[in-house]
Amino acid sequence: MKTPIVQVTSLSKNFSYPVPKQGKGWLSNLFFPERRTVQAVESISFAIHAGERVAFIGPNGAGKSTTIKMMTGILFPSEGEVRVLDMNPATDRKKLAYHIGTVFGQRSQLLPNLPLTDSFEFFGVMYDLSSEDIRRRTKELVQTFELGDFAQQPVRKLSLGQRMRAEVAASLIHEPQIIFLDEPTIGLDVVAKKSLRDLLLRINQEKKTTIFLTSHDVGDIETLCDRTMVINHGKLIADMPTSELSKQFISEKFISLVPKEHAETFPPLPEGLTYEETQPTQIIVRVDLARWDVPSALTSLLGYFEAEDIDIYNADMESVIRHVYERT
Predict the structure, then answer these.
(1) Three-state DSSP state, 37
(2) Among residues 203, 191, 140, which one has the least CA distance to residue 161?
(3) Cα(151)–Cα(117) distance, rounded to whole angstroms?
């Protein structure tokens, strides 16, 4: 079996902060504050292999960004160990930086008042690329990410969608083996999101670049990632193929019926079957799988409605993820 390029073992991170003591003066609270500790990440373990596309998801405050920052050497773990490309990010941060890329959706790394190509040159020099390699990589990235129309514009004049494509391109100037993406599509419109997702898939398929993504956007998860890890309250609660999430965490299905004739009445259904939508031309029923199997539920519904067409489907991914959070 191949050696993982990322190995996280019993990783924890605690933060402490001062809390004013009631009845004490400001001077006392300034120099002798009471301190409280919050555990942002609690003993999580996982491994990632080269070429994987992994979503790391959870509600706000779950520990996602903290974990990424420990994996990239920005934060030091309180306990446990991280190995990325057989390096310890806490002690080998500079060496590791030559092999990884990072994009934080809410924080730009480009030079705002200079043309985009100047940012590429700046990062190329920072990563010790030769002048020839910088020119070659800039040309490749401008072509791949379709940046030619605005490559000479100051970054501050780019639209958000253009800037995010440029941010990802800049993070790839040194051809990293793994790229960490923290909310890369935040604030983008539908067209810009699709463009960026397509580009990331292309980089993964052509360059075998490993993708580690955090996002609240269900489209990012479904489109980009074949594996999903779920973190909540600092604990890793799920790690499975993205396609298996609904099977593991959702205990319901939906049956859609198109009546042969327009439905005029909608009789009460047995317990465990609930109307989700009632239209004369379409009826959607939610099936509680703890009470019904699908064939029995369908047989029961056909006793109420004569159907011209039937469709059976799972909950959408957004509902699945919301259900995961609610259960934990």
Answers:
(1) strand
(2) 191
(3) 6
What is the Cα 119 distance to its own chain's centre?
26
Q: φ and ψ at 85, to 5 degrees? A: 55, 40
Please return the burial class of 290, using the count of CB atoms within 10 Å of its CB with bins 0-12, 13-18 and 19+. Answer: exposed
b/e per residue 16-26 (b: at least 16 CB within 10 A): eeeeeeeeeee
User: Amino acid identity of 41?
Assistant: V
User: Based on C-alpha coordinates, what's the Rg of the chain?
Assistant: 25
State the pTM of this model.
0.78
* Sign, CA torsion 14/213/249/268: positive
Rounded Cα gap, residues 268 and 275, in angstroms? 9
Task: Give the pLDDT confidence of 149-173 residue by residue, as tens digits.
Answer: 999 999 999 988 899 899 999 999 9
Measure Cα distances from 227 to 64, 84, 162, 188, 288 in Å.
16, 18, 28, 23, 27
| Nearest partner of 255 among 196, 315, 171, judged by Cα | 315
Q: Is 234 exposed, middle or buried (0-12, 13-18, 19+ CB in 10 A)?
A: buried
Task: Give the pLDDT confidence of 36-46 residue by residue, as tens digits.
Answer: 888 999 999 99
Q: Residues 191, 192, 196, 202: what is their CA dihedral angle, to the nearest 10 degrees?
A: 40
Residue with the two structure tokens 């990802």: 168
3-state secondary structure of 219: helix
Tell me the HSE value of 91 on the side-chain side, using a 13 A CA sphere: 6
Non-local CB neighbours of 22 within 8 Å, separated by 6+ positions: none
Q: Give per-residue pLDDT as tens, 221-256.
A: 888 999 999 998 899 988 999 888 766 766 788 999
* Secondary structure in 3-state letters for 66-84: HHHHHHCCCCCCCEEEEEE
